[in-house]
Write a structure and sequence with these properties.
The chain contains 9 helices and no strands. The relative contact order is 0.10. The protein is an all-alpha fold. Helices cover 78% and strands 0% of the residues.
């Protein structure tokens, strides 16, 4: 099931690029490695942008929005056209070929897609856990000693999103740290529910 879900997430993230690659005629030109090289160039440009932002434009801590600082941060995206120009200038061929290779390289990777994939897998595990909890609580032969534990886990599962959002907001966690926290909490709920499921099912 997890592998099937991973394939779905992978298809959602990359099928658009695969379709563009096949339908634009790039596959006939054997341009796959050129697209990969453009993707590596994209990663390098994004890394340079992040380093530049962290070095010269630290996170604004004030209560009022710093429009000048935000405008300067947005101006860092000028590096993208420069990177695209470098990628296109290193590829021989027609203009359409250069455009498609550079565009596919720039579009094939984004950290947000990785986060979305991991978050989708967390959601899948959460729903499996919730289904198991509902199955356990509705069993007529559930021993009365297990019922409070199952109800507690169901309560935690229902309010997990609220608790996690509050925790992330209060601790000012970044997106990756918040994702790690969701993985840990969901994992703990899954392990606890699995232990109860084994005990009930035995």
């Amino acid at each position: 099931m997890a592998l099937f879900h991973f394939r779905n997430c992978f298809a959602l993230a990359y099928f658009r690029c695969f379709t563009t690659y096949k339908c634009s005629g790039l596959s006939e030109s054997s341009a796959f490695w050129k697209c990969v090289q453009a993707g590596v160039a994209y990663l390098f440009v994004q890394l340079c942008k992040m380093l530049f932002l962290v070095t010269f434009f630290p996170t604004w801590e004030g209560g009022v929005c710093d429009f000048t600082g935000e405008f300067m941060k947005a101006s860092v995206d000028v590096a993208d056209p420069i990177g695209l120009n470098l990628v296109m200038s290193r590829n021989a061929g027609k203009g359409e070929y250069k455009i498609m290779v550079a565009a596919l390289g720039w579009a094939t990777f984004d950290w947000k897609y990785i986060q979305m994939t991991i978050d989708s897998n967390i959601s899948l595990v959460h729903h499996i856990v919730a289904s198991a909890q509902v199955w356990m609580i509705t069993r007529y032969d559930l021993h009365h000693t297990y019922r409070p534990a199952v109800l507690l886990l169901m309560f935690l599962s229902v309010y997990k999103a609220f608790v996690m959002e509050t925790f992330v907001h209060l601790c000012s966690l970044g997106s990756w740290t918040a994702l790690l926290a969701r993985v840990l909490v969901t994992g703990l709920l899954a392990l606890s529910s699995s232990a109860l499921y084994v005990s009930v099912h035995a």
